[in-house]
Structure formats: structure tokens, C-alpha cells
Design brief:
Blueprint lengths: L3 E3 H23 L5 H23 L9 H24 L6 H18 L3 H33 L2 H26 L9 E3 H71 L4 H23 L5 H15 L6 E7 L8 H21 L4 E9 L3 E8 L12 H13 L2 E7 L2 E9 L3
Parallel strand pairs: 3-4
Antiparallel strand pairs: 1-2, 4-5, 5-7, 6-7
Helix pairs in contact: 1-2, 1-7, 2-3, 3-4, 3-5, 5-6, 6-7, 7-8, 8-9, 8-10, 10-11
Length: 422
């Protein structure tokens, strides 16, 4: 006795498992409340129905009953359309509801209109299934785009299994009428042919469900990361705006008070304006440095200072060793630049130095080390801490950075250490 199962049993088994996978996927992703998930799971249920109708409708194609035929010819393309709409949603494409509804209604009217024509019924069923498989392959193409655009590897695997599922469905449809599947035998099919086909279809459907969950979670994670970055950038801009008000605005106010209290020469006015412009340039350069690269910011500072040194006798040498340094928040970068600029300004104005050396290096895990040293005459022993040094210490406390100032008759050194992340 040869082992055999009925085509009806195999179809019901395959359809039942497809429906279970669709409902399980819906339950797992329900908290996301996503239209993409809704479209995918509806498509999975319609695919399960179409899978069953492929076998059930075949023996009845020549019969009076048309219900299985109608279900097959409408559910097959609707399943492919739902899956295509789902994956399009994931890549950020909008699915206009009116064209989707028009497609569904038009196809249903065609199904009903042709249901009475026995000679065209089977051809239209094949056409409908072909449309559904084409739409599923379109969904596979968009899944490949997810893998490329979002860096989600499961997108490429989903495209592969969607293709396998379409091939399995097509193979089942083509092989069914070639086998002795008629009303009298209830579709008796040898196990050697149908069981591998059912197993392959079931396995690819299960993989589709699991990979779709992975794709949705991956895309959701990428979008959340993007929103977090946008939020962080917005917060950075707000801090820069506040700093523009508190820092630059305060500097302008201080300059005005100094000018009101005592008569100022043109040189004094030029110095005040230079300080205000230098601070404004720092804010602008920091706002444009969206990648948070301190090395780029220091290069901008070097470029700004080069214009002020053309007529001077002091040379500034730069040694930037910041490869591997992590991105720095803009507000933090601005404070570091202000400390560097303050130390350089003090050296240029008061140290009477021939050379100022700037060394910035990243030393994991210690963090950032910024050293500004000059070969001037050093600070007076009886000096009082003015606005410049007081500002340096205040910014160091705000950053949680270390600040060491050493001075002798051979020069002054300012060392700023900023701990690395973690």
C-alpha cells in the first residue's frame, strides 16, 4: 500500500499554518500599532485562504459552485498587494487608500463578472494568481531596499524567502491540475510529490513571519535612533542659542559698560569688537560642526587666529593627534574652544612670547588632553586672578574637566584634561 494524502488535506494544513504564522506575527508586533504590520498580517491571512482555494477550487472549476473560484481570484492578488503595501510602509512610502480600494473593488467586480463564464474562469484564476505573485515579488524588491537603506540584514533574507514562497505557490498551482485531482477522488495526491511541496511552502511562510518581525524591529530601532539623534541635535541647538544669549550677549553688555565708564581709544574699541567677533565665530563654527569632531573645530580656530597673527611677532604651532576621538557634543565642544581661545588670547596679549605651542591629543581611556604652552616671561608672582583665568576655571568646572596652570620665567602652560565617555 502506497502512502498517500489528499490534496485537500495538504492544502488545509498549509493554509492553517500560514494563518497561524500571520496571527502570531500580529500578536507579537501588536504593541507597535503599525499599519505596515496590519497590512502584512492581513496579506498573510489572504495568502492562507488563497493557498487553500488553489486545491479546493480546481475540482470545482467546471461545476456550478463559484464561491471557491471567487475567493481564489480575489484573495491571491489582494494578498500580494497587502504585502507590497506593508513593505512600502516600512521604507517610508505612502500607500494612497483610494487606489488600493479601487484596485480591490475593480478586481472583485471582474471576478464576479467572469464567474459565469466557465471557459474564462480558469484562465482568469491563473491571471489573478500571477498578479498576486508579481506583487509579492515587488514586496521582495522593497525588502532588499530595507536591507540597503536601513542596514537591516533580515531585509535581504526576507526578500529571498518571499521569492521562495511565490515559487512554492506557483509550483503548487501548476502541479495540481496535472495530478489526478478530480471530484471523484477528492484530489488524491502521492505523498512523494505533495508532502515536500507542503513542507517547503510551510517553511518559507514561517521564515517570512520570523524575518518580517526582525525587519520591523530593525527598522523601528533605526528610526528611533534617528529621532534620538534629531532630538539631541535640537537640544544642542537650544543650548547654543542659550549660550549665544548668555555668553556673547553678556560679552557685548560688558563691553558697553566698559565704554560707558571710561573713555576708550580706538584700539580699545577694536579689542572689544575683536573679542565679541571671536566668540561669535566660535558659536557659528560649533553649530556647523554637526559631526562633533573636535579636530575640525580646532582647525577652524587655527584659521581664525591666522588672520590676527599676520602682523604680529608671535608664532603658533599646532599638533593635533585626535584620531579615534569620539564625537563631542556641540555645547561641550564650544566650552573647550572657548577655553583654548582664552588661553591663547592671554598668551598673545600678556606673555610677550615668541612661540605658542598647541597640542591636542586623545589618550584612551584617559580622554582628551589639550596643552597650550608659551615661551614668554611667565605670570607675575603677585598676580591677581582676572576675568580670563576665572573664566577658564568656571568652564572647567562646568565640563567636569581638569585644569592645571603652571608658570615660570621660561613660560606658561595651560593643561586641560577632559575624561572620555564612560
Amino acid at each position: 500500500m502506497t502512502s498517500a494524502i489528499t490534496g485537500f488535506d495538504a492544502a488545509v494544513l498549509n493554509a492553517t499554518l500560514a494563518a497561524v504564522f500571520a496571527l502570531t506575527t500580529w500578536a507579537v508586533l501588536w504593541p507597535l500599532r503599525s499599519r505596515a504590520v496590519d497590512f502584512w498580517c492581513i496579506g498573510g491571512l489572504l495568502f492562507a485562504i488563497a493557498s487553500a482555494m488553489v486545491v479546493i477550487a480546481r475540482p470545482l472549476m467546471q461545476e456550478v459552485a463559484t464561491s471557491p473560484y471567487l475567493v481564489l481570484t480575489w484573495s491571491a492578488p489582494a494578498s500580494g498587494l497587502a504585502r507590497l503595501s506593508s513593505v512600502r510602509q516600512l521604507v517610508g512610502r505612502r500607500n494612497p487608500p483610494r487606489p488600493l480600494a479601487a484596485f480591490g473593488i475593480l478586481h472583485l467586480l471582474l471576478c464576479v463578472g467572469l464567474s459565469g463564464h466557465v471557459e474564462t474562469r480558469q484562465a482568469f484564476a491563473v491571471f489573478s494568481v500571477a498578479v498576486g505573485l508579481t506583487l509579492s515579488l515587488g514586496a521582495a524588491w522593497f525588502a532588499l531596499r530595507i536591507s540597503r537603506d536601513y542596514g537591516v540584514p533580515s531585509g535581504g533574507l526576507l526578500a529571498m524567502t518571499l521569492t521562495f514562497t511565490s515559487v512554492s505557490f506557483l509550483t503548487g498551482m501548476v502541479s495540481t491540475p496535472l495530478l489526478h485531482l478530480d471530484p471523484s477522488t477528492t484530489g488524491l495526491v502521492p505523498s512523494a510529490i505533495y508532502v515536500p511541496l507542503v513542507l517547503f511552502g510551510t517553511l518559507s511562510t514561517a521564515c517570512n513571519a520570523m524575518l518580517f518581525v526582525g525587519v520591523v524591529m530593525g527598522v523601528t530601532a533605526r528610526r528611533l535612533e534617528g529621532r534620538e539623534r534629531e532630538l539631541a541635535m535640537s537640544e544642542e541647538r537650544l543650548r547654543l542659542i542659550a549660550d549665544l544669549h548668555d555668553g556673547f550677549g553678556s560679552q557685548l553688555a560688558t563691553a558697553r559698560i566698559r565704554l560707558e565708564r571710561a573713555p576708550a581709544t580706538s584700539a580699545d574699541i577694536a579689542t572689544l569688537l575683536e573679542e565679541c567677533l571671536a566668540d561669535l565665530y566660535l558659536i557659528v563654527d560649533t553649530a556647523q560642526n554637526v559631526e562633533g569632531r573636535l579636530e575640525d573645530a580646532l582647525r577652524f580656530l587655527r584659521h581664525r587666529l591666522a588672520g590676527r597673527l599676520r602682523e604680529g611677532s608671535t608664532a603658533i604651532t599646532w599638533d593635533l593627534q585626535l584620531s579615534g576621538a569620539p564625537p563631542m557634543p556641540q555645547w561641550q565642544m564650544l566650552q573647550v574652544l572657548r577655553m583654548a581661545q582664552e588661553a591663547l588670547t592671554n598668551a598673545l596679549r600678556h606673555a610677550r612670547a615668541r612661540t605658542i605651542h598647541v597640542n591636542a591629543r586623545y589618550e584612551p581611556p584617559a580622554g582628551l588632553v589639550l596643552v597650550i604652552a608659551d615661551d614668554g616671561g611667565g605670570m607675575p608672582a603677585d598676580r591677581r586672578e582676572g576675568r580670563g583665568l576665572g573664566g577658564l576655571r568656571s568652564r572647567a568646572r562646568e565640563l567636569g574637566a581638569g585644569l592645571a596652570i603652571t608658570s615660570s620665567d621660561t613660560g606658561t602652560q595651560v593643561c586641560i584634561t577632559l575624561p572620555g565617555p564612560g
